[in-house]
Amino acid sequence: MPASESYPDDLLYHREHDWARIDGDEAVLGVTWYAVDALGELVHYEPPAEGASVRKDEPYGEVESVKAVSDLISPLSGEVLEVNAKVVGAPETVNEDPYGDGWLIRIRMSDPSERDALLDVAAYRQVLADS
User: Fold this and answer.
1) pLDDT at 131
2) Could you tell me if residue 69 is inside a domain?
3) What is the pLDDT of residues 100-115, one digit of tens each?
4) 4, pLDDT greater than 90
């Protein structure tokens, strides 16, 4: 069952509809409800390799839905520490729980100051309202 629309207050958001949950020098990344709703049911997730580097504002993997294939844009730079194997095996997990079990990767940030460019929930909601 698809998740209902939500944008948790404890996350930071990227204009490309990705989110980051930051804890110290690590961050868990995923896609927002808006992205999931726009894509429709996910059928494939192509993650980066563990140990790979991701760069802010650049693609790090892709998701395929019944509608389209879309690049995942990283909101932060860093080294991939973990890929969510549950989503690799069951991509629809992102549709059901985009902020919980549907997270995509965990990274060690290479430039923690990049978080300053991310949006809080109010600013992200304004991006959605303006689009």
Assistant:
1) 86
2) yes
3) 999 999 999 999 999 9
4) no
User: What own/partner pairs with CB < 8 Å and gap ≥ 24 does 34-39 have?
Assistant: 34/5, 34/128, 35/70, 35/98, 36/2, 36/3, 36/94, 36/95, 36/98, 36/102, 37/2, 37/5, 39/63, 39/65, 39/67, 39/68, 39/70
Residue-range definition of the domain harbouring residue 49: 12-130
Give a yes or no: residue 21 inside a domain.
Answer: yes
Which CATH number belongs to the domain containing residue 59 in this structure? 2.40.50.100
Asked, for residue 5, whether it belongs to a domain, the answer is no
Mean pLDDT, residues 37-66 taken together: 96
> Could you give the number of structural domains in the chain?
1
